[in-house]
């Protein structure tokens, strides 16, 4: 509704104006009335009316002075001036004040309604125009945010080559980059798992902190993009070389303010991570990748609140030392689907990694990736995990980058493993046969014609030959070699029924190294020789050699 203020020193005139018009017809309401210019001016500031109907002659301020005072702080309000004077000077001054209409007393209903209608049409047109502009602005802003979200996805994944020319990037992503320095940074709010309301507290605190930081960075940057994912706000900065030395002090000051704001929240911690500097679009992926390394290292270098690429260090050889420590135990735990033992192995590896973090700040991350690969390979092989390895890693790495402690890394791996163990247990097949035995049996079915040994099969399922042999005998009732020979004999029976294969070819195709050994095993298993078996089924000695 449009708001109307009526100002006249004659009370009955105010009452008359209120009654003469059906204000709702024009989407208007009487918001207030006043009997002098001073009170009216105060009301204009308070209620911000859309239309003021004002008398020329009033105590305090006269009508013309009142309108001039209002125009000093509000140029949008419409005026209808009423007066008992016909002098041209009044009308001329009123017109100079850009009034909508000038009416003479006594007030005529038709004239007043006509004036109000014209004002309504002007207000409605202005409102419609403003709404249209606002809608366009919202759509443009939404389009820009979406384009910049895509920009962040591209630059963080590093899976796209950006155009060399800035104008092409600006056109594609609706940015306003200019020549200078480009650098990524991230504001992270980590919350320990024991914070009960972190789902509410973290987003609110992060929103406040990123808003303040964005405002501070705007004073330094020619262009700044922002994208928030869970507990991390990413910033892509574009600033001049002259501003380079000003960035770190701004970030440090912001961190100090953030730390003060989180003192009353135990378990909350802010970090800022920086990517490397670059000066051309071709190097955008470099600043992104160095930023990601800092993010991945922040739990290892937990005492560094402001982390830069120069503070990272690596010792790749340490990973194998950590893995080998519990490698066999983890393989056995996976083979037996022992969820608690899997969890223990993962926890032990992360505990061991803690003591060598000073040598390799990315060790937590590399251990996570290695364990992901091992877990995926195992559950994929037994038919539980149907995701592609790329999709699986991408999903799990999102959990890693938003986690705030090594305990959460181990927990996410253990939780995912537990989920797949539970999924595996829903399968009737998985209840009857352990996954390693299914894998070995499938391997035999696909490679029976090749030279297969117990050691080969054990490597496939990451078990020792001795352990696999015991497990196989327990589940199948016969040992590995007897099962393999039985499978090959079953294959040879079908081959012997086809005259196009002689005994030598049958032995080779079914995986036996020699005809003599084949015949020996065949007779032991079937009770007759291969030749006799063929004669019984074909009624001929065809093809025997």
From TrEMBL:
Residues 438-536 form the HTH araC/xylS-type domain. The modification 4-aspartylphosphate is found at residue 55. It is found in: Cytoplasm. One of its GO terms (cellular component) is cytoplasm. GO terms for biological process: phosphorelay signal transduction system. It holds the Pfam family HTH_18. One of its GO terms (molecular function) is DNA-binding transcription factor activity. PROSITE patterns: HTH_ARAC_FAMILY_1, HTH_ARAC_FAMILY_2, RESPONSE_REGULATORY. Keywords: Cytoplasm, DNA-binding, Phosphoprotein, Transcription, Transcription regulation, Two-component regulatory system. Residues 3-120 form the Response regulatory domain. This is Stage 0 sporulation protein A homolog.
């Amino acid at each position: 509704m449009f708001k109307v203020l009526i100002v006249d020193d004659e009370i009955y005139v105010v009452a008359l104006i209120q009654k003469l018009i059906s204000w709702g017809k024009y989407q208007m309401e009487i918001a207030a009335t006043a009997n002098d210019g001073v009170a009216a001016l105060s009301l204009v500031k308070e209620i911000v009316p859309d239309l003021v109907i004002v008398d020329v002659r009033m105590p305090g301020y006269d009508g013309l002075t009142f309108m001039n005072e209002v125009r000093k702080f509000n140029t949008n309000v419409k005026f209808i001036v009423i007066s008992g004077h016909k002098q041209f000077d009044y009308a001329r001054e009123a017109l100079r004040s850009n009034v909508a209409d000038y009416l003479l007393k006594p007030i005529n209903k038709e004239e007043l309604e006509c004036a109000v209608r014209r004002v309504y049409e002007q207000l409605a047109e202005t409102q419609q125009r403003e709404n249209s502009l606002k809608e366009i602005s919202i759509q443009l802003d939404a389009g820009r945010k979406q384009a910049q979200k895509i920009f962040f996805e591209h630059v963080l994944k590093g899976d796209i080559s950006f155009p060399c020319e800035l104008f092409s990037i600006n056109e594609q992503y609706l940015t306003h980059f200019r020549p200078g320095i480009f650098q990524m940074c991230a504001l992270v709010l980590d919350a320990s798992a024991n914070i009960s309301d972190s789902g509410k507290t973290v987003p609110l605190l992060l929103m406040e902190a990123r808003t303040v930081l964005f405002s501070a960075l705007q004073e330094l940057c020619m262009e700044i993009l922002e994208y928030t994912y869970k507990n991390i706000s990413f910033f892509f900065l574009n600033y001049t070389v002259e501003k380079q030395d000003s960035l770190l002090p701004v970030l440090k000051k912001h961190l100090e303010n953030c730390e003060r704001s989180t003192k009353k929240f135990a378990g909350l911690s802010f970090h800022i991570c920086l990517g490397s500097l670059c000066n051309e679009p071709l190097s955008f992926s470099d600043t992104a990748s160095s930023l990601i390394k800092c993010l991945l290292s922040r739990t290892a270098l937990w005492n560094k609140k402001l982390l830069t690429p120069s503070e990272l260090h690596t010792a790749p050889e340490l990973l194998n030392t950590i893995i080998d420590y519990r490698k066999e135990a983890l393989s056995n735990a996976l083979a037996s689907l022992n969820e608690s033992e899997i969890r223990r192995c993962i926890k032990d590896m992360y505990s061991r990694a803690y003591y060598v973090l000073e040598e390799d700040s990315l060790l937590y991350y590399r251990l996570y990736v290695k364990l992901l690969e091992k877990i995926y390979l195992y559950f994929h092989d037994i038919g539980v995990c149907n995701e592609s390895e790329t999709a699986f890693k991408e999903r799990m790495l999102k959990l890693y980058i938003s986690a705030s402690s090594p305990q959460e890394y181990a927990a996410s791996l253990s939780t995912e493993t537990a989920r797949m163990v539970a999924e595996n247990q829903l399968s009737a097949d998985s209840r009857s046969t352990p996954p390693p035995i299914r894998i070995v049996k499938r391997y035999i079915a696909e490679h029976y014609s090749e030279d297969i040994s117990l050691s080969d099969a054990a490597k496939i399922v990451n078990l020792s030959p001795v352990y696999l042999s015991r497990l196989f005998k327990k589940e199948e009732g016969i040992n590995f070699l007897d099962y393999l020979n039985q499978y090959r004999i079953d294959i040879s029976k079908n081959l012997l029924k086809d005259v196009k294969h002689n005994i030598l070819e049958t032995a080779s195709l079914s995986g036996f190294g020699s005809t003599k050994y084949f015949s020996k095993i065949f007779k032991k298993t079937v009770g007759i020789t291969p030749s006799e078996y063929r004669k019984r089924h074909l009624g001929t000695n065809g093809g025997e050699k």
